[in-house]
Structure formats: structure tokens, C-alpha cells
Design goal:
The protein is α/β, with parallel strands linked by helices and 263 residues long. The protein folds into 3 domains: 93 residues, Elongation Factor Tu (Ef-tu), domain 3, CATH 2.40.30; 117 residues, 3-Layer(aba) Sandwich (Rossmann fold); 49 residues, no CATH class. The protein is built from 7 helices and 17 strands. The strands form 3 sheets. Strands 4-3-7-1-2-6-5 form a 7-stranded antiparallel sheet. A 7-stranded mixed sheet has the order 11-10-9-8-12-13-16, sandwiched between helices. β5 and β6 form a beta hairpin. It starts with a strand and ends with a strand. It binds flavin-adenine dinucleotide (FAD). The site of flavin-adenine dinucleotide has 23 residues, from β4, β6 and α2.
Length: 263
């Protein structure tokens, strides 16, 4: 993990409120190990803005990295106003990676909201290795989608308001895809209610699955202890913090579905 000053190559709004930014990051790319990893972006080097913002790596092409983000608050607003040629201060690559997808399983990839960034990254890696996977992407409305609904090629879009793809959440589509796939493994990233629903589904159906968790995060390096998530099924000793909790920045963001608890 290093800090690199990276030149912005592209910064476009690709769908309603969803932005895609590409920058040159040769040093960070040289440490990159795969989909799941993320960056911490320092948006203003001021005391009033000390905490970096975590963003998943959505694509790596030669020495360039792409992120996909949604304007959420002050930091992402500043990001959307960044100009081509400008410099971003990035810490990365951070976190672990999705695993098992090159093995015997058929990956079913599920992304919700901007949780699609690491999922799209994994989808592209599967394509690169000629591994057939199914991609299910959910959004609140059709305006937030920027790829085509293409079920014949295993790409399924859903929208809460029914304006594009299948109406409703990603779960009914996940059920349908699961019913026709032999030996599936589910990979998911998205808002907590979606992750919880995916977790319930895979545990009920005994499907191996990995979930990438977007908890509130500060430093990204284990110092601030801000990104704590509860572990599941632990035989915790009353006083053992480390057996009960995990830091998403250090142990994650990718967890086996039966490892973490969203309650
Ligand atoms: C591992 C990881 C990967 C992420 N990948 C992406 C991505 O690819 N695209 C994307 O749009 N967003 C992603 N997020 C969420 C993104 O980091 C927050 O939306 C963003 O930090 C909000 O910053 P802000 O200044 O605009 O909002 P503010 O509300 O001003 O942020 C205040 C603080 O809260 C934290 N915060 C607020 N919302 C979230 C959230 N949902 N998750 C985690 N921290 C939050 C921020 O880190 C910041 O410190 C990711 C989060 C994590 C933990």
C-alpha cells in the first residue's frame, strides 16, 4: 500500500448521479491484486477534511484505474467537480479480493447501487479469463443504470420502480438465475439491506458466497477502528473484542457470507 499523486484522465456522469473517473496510477497498479480492493481518496489536504473517502476499484487497464461513484456528501461532490489533468492523492490498494471465481464454480455476481463497482470489476475479470458468469445489477430507477439489460448474455438489470429490466429488488432475479445454474457461487456488493437479503438467501440455500461490505470507514488502515462489523456464529469470550468484531479495512471488505452479521 502506498500514497500516489494520480493524474485524472476522465471524469464523466455516466448515469443519473453516477460518475465514472479514470486516473493514471502506475505505482498503485503495481501492487493491485484483484477485484475487491479499494482506494482511499484525500479530497482536500486541510485539517477540516482529514478523513479520506473509500472507493472500490472498478477497473484496471494497464497503468490506469477506474472508479464509479455516486454523489453522497461533501467529498463525492468535490470528486465530481475535479477536472481532467487535476491531481488526486490516493492511498491504495487496500483490502482483500474476491476468491474462488477461477475454480469450479459458476459465478453469480450481484451489485446494488454503487456496489456495482467491484462487481463490474469481477465481471470483466471473468470475461478476461473466459469464465461464464451471470451479472445482476439493481438500482432504484432506470436512470441509474448505464449498461444494457441483456438476459441472453447473462446480464440482468432490476429497478425498484420497474422503469428498466425486471421490476423489484435483485432477489427474485437471483432466485431465477440460481434455479438454472449448476454449482453457483454468489458474489455481492451493495447497500446493507441488499447484502442482508443476499446473505439470508445464500445461507438458506447453502450456496457459497462472498460479500463485499461498505461500512463507514475513516483511515482505511486499522488506526481509527471506525469500520467495525460484527462477526457471526462466534463462540465469543465475554471480553474478546477481536473474536466478536472485524475491521472492514483490514480483514475485508470481502467476507464469506457466513462470517459477518448485519444486525
Ligand atoms: C470499502 C468501501 C468501498 C466503497 N466503494 C464505493 C464506490 O465504489 N462507489 C461509491 O460511490 N461509494 C463507495 N463507498 C462509499 C463511499 O466511500 C461513501 O459514499 C463516501 O465516502 C461518502 O463521502 P462523502 O464525503 O461524499 O459523504 P459524507 O457524508 O460527507 O461522508 C462523511 C463520512 O462518512 C463516511 N461515509 C458516508 N457514507 C458512507 C458509506 N455508504 N460507506 C462508507 N462510508 C461512508 C465517509 O467515509 C466519510 O468519512 C465505499 C465504501 C467503502 C467502505
Amino acid at each position: 500500500m502506498i500514497i500516489e499523486q494520480c493524474k485524472i484522465i476522465r471524469n464523466d456522469e455516466v448515469a443519473g448521479g453516477i460518475w465514472e473517473m479514470e486516473f493514471s496510477a502506475p505505482e498503485i497498479v503495481s501492487y493491485y491484486t484483484g477485484p475487491g480492493q479499494f482506494l482511499e481518496i484525500l479530497l482536500e489536504n486541510k485539517w477540516s477534511f482529514t478523513v479520506r473517502r473509500p472507493m472500490s476499484i472498478a477497473n484496471v487497464e494497464e497503468k490506469r484505474i477506474t472508479i464509479i461513484y455516486k454523489i453522497f456528501g461533501r467529498g463525492t461532490k468535490i470528486l465530481s467537480e475535479s477536472k481532467i489533468g487535476g491531481i488526486l492523492d490516493l492511498l491504495g490498494p487496500l483490502g482483500n479480493v474476491f476468491s474462488g471465481w477461477k475454480e469450479k464454480y459458476v459465478p453469480i455476481l450481484v451489485g446494488g447501487g454503487v456496489g456495482l463497482a467491484p462487481i463490474l470489476n469481477l465481471f470483466k475479470e471473468c470475461q478476461k479469463y473466459k469464465i461464464h458468469s451471470n451479472l445482476i445489477l439493481g438500482a432504484r430507477t432506470g436512470r441509474e443504470h448505464f449498461i444494457d439489460h441483456d438476459p441472453s448474455n447473462g446480464i440482468f438489470l432490476t429497478t425498484d420502480d420497474g422503469t428498466l429490466g425486471t421490476s423489484g429488488t435483485v432477489i427474485p432475479t437471483l432466485e431465477n438465475v440460481f434455479s438454472v445454474v449448476d454449482n453457483p457461487m454468489v458474489y455481492a456488493c451493495g447497500p446493507l439491506p441488499m447484502l442482508k437479503a443476499v446473505q439470508d438467501f445464500v445461507i438458506q440455500n447453502k450456496i457459497p458466497a462472498q460479500l463485499s461490505v461498505e461500512s463507514y470507514m475513516g483511515c482505511g488502515t486499522g488506526l481509527c477502528q471506525g469500520c467495525v462489523i460484527k462477526k457471526r456464529n462466534i463462540k465469543a469470550k465475554a471480553h474478546s473484542y477481536h473474536e466478536r468484531y472485524s475491521l472492514v479495512c483490514m480483514d475485508g471488505p470481502v467476507y464469506s457470507a457466513d462470517e459477518v452479521c448485519f444486525d
